[in-house]
Amino acid sequence: MKTALIQQRYTGDKTSMRQATADMVAEAAANGARLVVLQELHQGPYFCQHEAVDLFDLAEDYDADVAFWSGVAEVNEVVLVASLFEKRAPGLYHNTAVVFESDGSVAGKYRKMHIPDDPGFYEKFYFTPGDLGFTPVDTSVGRLGVLVCWDQWYPEAARLMALAGAQMLIYPTAIGWFDADEEEEKSRQRDAWITVQRGHAVANGLPLVAVNRVGFEKDPSGVLEGIRFWGTSFACGPQGEMLAEASLDEEEVVLVEIDLERSEAVRRWWPFLRDRRIDAYEGLLKRYID
């Protein structure tokens, strides 16, 4: 299955960002992509660098945003994974991945479960933790285990998607470094990000796609300089083998062939699910085993 990873920088406004993204989706479809994955919160800036109540207004157009990306999926006849700021009710907001079928219908959605709160990544201020669980979305291209960014550090999330029958793990993400960090630290962080996700692929015998932003986005509050998103969107196979990798700093439409059938062979060779000791994992339900 030909899959497109769309890696972008923020253009400066929602209208031009939407158009640029729609154009890249059309390019991917013209080149044979059946599944297109967008980066986290792809319609605008990564606004969580500071806390400002007015920014909740970005979620007011959620229904209109769903309608717009539904049209993009339908026109291009692709399964599209979008990442939107969802207003569920007054004072209740989610970081939500919406999966559109190739006819424009909503196949399903996932609300981000793990929410970070770190300097420059103040997501707990904006996002309520998801309540839809780790449930794959059935589409015409397969059962997709869609997670979002901070979820990528948690093997439990990937495992539960796999146990629910996901055929692929997908992570829209927005992660980068601060320019003031030492080069060695930058390298360690990016390598860890790649390594842990390849580990999820290996541990679950599933292909995996991660799509990240690129470019520098200034902290509007001035407290920090801003974040330089490190790109490196990639796809790997069920043994963690790298299938495609984007650059650190360029916008790209990365096309990659992903063989969902390969998981069957890999799981026969490495039957990790068979050998799980489900009778001995009680401790996983504790915060910490004192």
Structural class: alpha+beta
Number of helices: 5
Q: Name the beta content range.
A: 25-35%
Radius of gyration: 18 Å
Q: Report the average pLDDT across residues.
A: 97
Order of secondary-structure elements: EHEHEEEEEEEHEEHEEEEEEH
Unreliable spans? none
Distance between the termini: 47 Å
Q: Main beta sheet, described?
A: 6 strands, mixed
Helix content: 10-25%
| Anisotropy-based shape | globular
What's the number of extended β-strand segments? 17
**Widest sheet: strand order?**
5-4-3-2-1-17
TL;DR of this structure?
This protein has 290 residues and is of the alpha+beta class. The protein has helices at residues 14-30, 62-76, 155-163, 183-204, 262-269; strands spanning 2-7, 35-38, 79-89, 92-100, 106-111, 117-118, 121-122, 137-139, 142-146, 168-172, 176-177, 208-211, 214-218, 226-230, 234-236, 242-245, 252-257. The model has no long low-confidence stretch (mean pLDDT 97).
Explain what the structure shows.
- The chain has 290 residues and is an alpha+beta fold.
- Helix content is 24%, strand content 28%.
- It has 5 helices and 17 strands.
List keywords for this structure.
6-stranded mixed β-sheet, alpha+beta, 290 residues, 5 helices, 28% strand, 17 strands
Topology:
Blueprint lengths: L1 E6 L6 H17 L4 E4 L23 H15 L2 E11 L2 E9 L5 E6 L5 E2 L2 E2 L14 E3 L2 E5 L8 H9 L4 E5 L3 E2 L5 H22 L3 E4 L2 E5 L7 E5 L3 E3 L5 E4 L6 E6 L4 H8 L21
Parallel strand pairs: 1-2, 2-3, 9-10, 10-12
Antiparallel strand pairs: 1-17, 3-4, 4-5, 6-7, 8-9, 11-14, 12-15, 13-14, 15-16
Helix pairs in contact: 1-2, 3-4
